[in-house]
Records
---
Amino acid sequence: MTETRQHGFDTLQVHAGARPDPATGARQTPIYQSTAFVFRDADHAAALFNLEEVGFIYSRLTNPTVAVLQERIATLEGGAGAVCCSSGHAAQIMALFPLMRPGCNVIASTRLYGGTVTQFTQTIKRFGWEAKFVDFDDPQALADAIDDNTRAIFGEVIANPGGWIMDIDAVAKVADDAGLPLIIDNTTATPYLHRPIEHGAALVVHSTTKYLTGNGTVTGGCIVDSGRFDWSASGKFPSLSEPEPAYHGLKFHETFGALAFTFHGIAVGLRDLGMTMNPQAAHYTLLGIETLSLRMDRHVANAEKVAAWLETHPAVDRVTYAGLPSSPYYERARTVCPKGAGGLFTFALKGGYDACVKFIDSVEVFSHVANLGDTRSLCIHSASTTHRQLSPAQQEAAGAGADMVRVSIGIEDADDLIADLDQALAKAAPSMAAE
Ligand SMILES: *Cc1c(COP(=O)(O)O)cnc(C)c1O
């Protein structure tokens, strides 16, 4: 497609970035299962290696199947460019890598995916980076946490798993006032429910493993660059604004403008960190993304029905889903993600830890797995699994206390999901069966 901007989301999720294969006419994007690509001649090779010409060299850096997916996700998010990589966690490191140095910090929301909390509290320390956790519902506390070594602000708009919704406009204003890039992990919302760049995010990261692929087949990640952040204004981002010794003194921002972060992500990030997405994974994700809006509408409709039913069940203490009128985030969700608050929520059982474990062991349609965003309905007891490495206080802050079950509502018949939950709750809390 030549002019993609005027098309709607449903059209772009099928077409953006793709065209019939020029060599064969293949209508579906082929899996370019090739490690390397032949140079036209020595001058062509030299131009590619000098970043004077864009093309395919070696699949650690670029691959035609992966390139289609990059353009598709960038288009759906309204970004200038995107870099795909091997997982959502790789995307987070790849997003921070050009911004950080030893001694630098990122300010992160307390409401984050459990794996991200672990990555940020433990692993990034080995690089000399630090994360400071702040309640993003308090913009003043966020502003106060920023210091001279802060290089980014990081959060999730629909936070996994606690049913929390970020006031992204307020957070983006703090980032903007401080001249810092706001990075949003948009995995749980997807660009169908929320587009962070329209609200001031500089970068968007995804675990494409989840809703974008949508069928639980492959892990992947993506970093979308809005193309709008001025990497040269403050002098704080020398990797992007200053001469790059590994490319004969090339300055990425000056040379590539709105695509500076994307080019750096490929030419330095993928080249030297090697967290590459393979073309098979890109293929599965391209197949999944074609139906993203259809699936998200069903995920949301089912989640709303199931959450409303659970809320009335005598064994259930509370349900944290921002799509329920009883949620403190209901009104915010209606402005931040008007098409729905996603397909992921938690609920607490009055019977605590033991009832949760019995419930998890009793489900039949739901699967007990550490994943989310699948067509299948999934459940997990976060406190004993995904959030196990966190302290009890961190678990509570992340919405993953010992009495909480997390569900990722799939696209099955809502009545079948409710019937399955009903029989599992009857086993978990026999004295509190539904009337
Ligand atoms: C799963 C997930 C991640 C990590 O992604 P992987 O692909 O598993 O590495 C990060 N953020 C959120 C919100 C997630 O759900």
---
Amino acid sequence: MELTLRQKEIFRAISSVEPLSQWYDWKWHMRNSIKDIETFEKLFGIRFSNKKREAFQKTVDKFPIAITPYYLSLINTDDFENDPVFMQAFPAPLELDVMDWDMSDPLHEDRDSPVAGVTHRYPDRVLLLVSNICGMYCRHCTRKRRVGDVDSIPGRTEIMAGIEYIRNTPKIRDVLLSGGDPFLLADDYLDWILSELQAIDHVEVIRIGTRTPVVLPYRITGELVNMLKKHHPLWINTQFNHPREITRSSREALVKLADSGIPLGNQTVLLAGVNDCPRIMRSLVHKLVKNRVRPYYLYQCDLSEGLSHFRTPVGKGIEIMESLIGHTSGFCIPTYVIDAPGGGGKIPVMPNYLISWSTNKVVLRNYEGVITTYQEPHSYNPQFCNRNCDTCDLQLELGDADDNRAVGIERLLSDYDQTISLVPSGNERYARRD
Ligand SMILES: *Cc1c(COP(=O)(O)O)cnc(C)c1O
């Protein structure tokens, strides 16, 4: 594969002696990651004014910078200030504007953590942070609080403790490896983590969240995918935020992953000035599925400190969903979610399609604005469910039946539970009753 002119230029500016083929070595990109404003200026061929440089420097002092030469090479030099790649990679002084409602850990990942490195939020799955290293420091990182924090690189003992927690918690059937970027670990180390997890009977599936196909596609080597293949069922989610990030190099990385039988998903973050546009999103999801990547989530930007300039109103996300649903293939459409501040998890939000309802009819509207009705059955004998599956007419395979009690809204809907409302602890009206 040929390098672009820009890539050759950047390579030569970094190293005049090494062979160009080094460009394809992901470790070369990590060694030569751009970590200060001066190097950026030199490689980019610009000089910021002293005032601007000072403002950038102040930002970098709080939130460090790291850009791979590869990702830098995608920036359009003619209009870089509006460039989606530049905006995701280069510090903006606005990051220092902290709003009253910003939090360092809005998702309470640290508080919902039974052991260091594990966030156990949902009943059957956990997040395991296995690396604190990233190919690039995304300016919109939700874990900005930890970026560049070398002291908290999880060591083998810490990861072992996380794995031990998973081993001792039979309800966990799905483990998400994240970080940092798990693919910044050495192959054999990652192989060890995956083997340990796979050896646990109740772990049915492992997922890896990685941005390397976007910012460091050369990390996806033949050796890496050969190792990953041993650990099926393994799912990977990546994070393309703009169609421009899907390049020849990233496509090659995706081919290697998909050809090794790994289902690929994508989690996009909705970012003001980067992708808050229905046309950009439509082009992004189409390019993704062409490359066998299924759009999984579209995230509303979190309330982490330093992200205020990236946030859009929720209405922008709804508008984008409105422009996708019905207009394009169902599997091109991600679920738009708001990750609840305080640790409530991801909450899906959608345009409203259910307009009204009576006892025997629902009124719906479609993506074109056509209003239609659905006639409901005149009689329906609901199966009364007391969770005593032995007496039920439905052919539930008892061998696989899971008789956990219902939680949350599911509990309000169930026949066998007398709960009629869910009340937050600390509710003042209830406190008065005592
Ligand atoms: C996102 C997330 C998950 C996985 O959620 P899915 O909806 O299953 O993809 C699990 N744990 C935590 C803490 C998360 O943030």
